């Protein structure tokens, strides 16, 4: 069921719909896999401000953009055999003081970055080696540090430290980890956004996976200026230390506030009830409750809303249903292609 204007779906021949997905975290590969099955021309723009886990440890030893999200995105778009993907994803479980807990793919990305001098070129080379169907672009060529101001006026730097405080976040921004230079995205990132039919934000942690990308000044400006349909995939569950008690409208509002206007064109929100009897909170480190619907609040954000049963709940875990979400994105991309062609005629 869709709230808002009727959608007209046209099949447009000549090229695949161009879809740019911006974000990070575990939700991103689910959407990328679905879009790959829909035969979209995909560009994934991946967060580079993570400082936890294997990525954070490697970042402490080697001056490199955190590789974890990049690794998962490469695998999701790769046409390698299952065995090849499993090797790339393998995480050491030995007691070795350095290798324990590290994924092989993270080490390969760090090595290529060192060999070629920048993470963007390293990822493009690895994309060819892994037969990636699409493009994988780090949001920045340099490691970035996430900064937050809380509602109480205090500030904190570092993703792990920000979420550990479990305080309500007012706003976030990013800084270059190693210099005073203003963080910038490289030209291929900007070109992909400007040429896209659909730009997708999420799903993923609002303040630590989505907004860090948009706070890179020229990347955020490209999202504001693109003629693509800007789509937000709202999270299914709230996240402790980030979005406690948030509604779907709260998520959209925060993104629009950081962008400085009403730039979300369409929000995809779950309208199905989650079976909490099958939900096991101990399986999650940071999830609290289902994100509640606030359609009046969404109307205030001036975005079209598409609501459906977007959940895939299995064995007490809750995910987005990639197939359903992917189909909605492709439909919206085709609409944007139609509008662009009519504008050009």
From TrEMBL:
Its main location: cytoplasm. One of its GO terms (biological process) is regulation of cell shape. Transmembrane segments: none annotated. It is found in: Cytoplasm. Keywords: Cytoplasm. Pfam families: CofD. Belongs to the gluconeogenesis factor family. PANTHER family: GLUCONEOGENESIS FACTOR-RELATED, UNCHARACTERIZED PROTEIN YVCK-RELATED. Required for morphogenesis under gluconeogenic growth conditions. This is Putative gluconeogenesis factor. It comes from Lactobacillus pasteurii DSM 23907 = CRBIP 24.76.
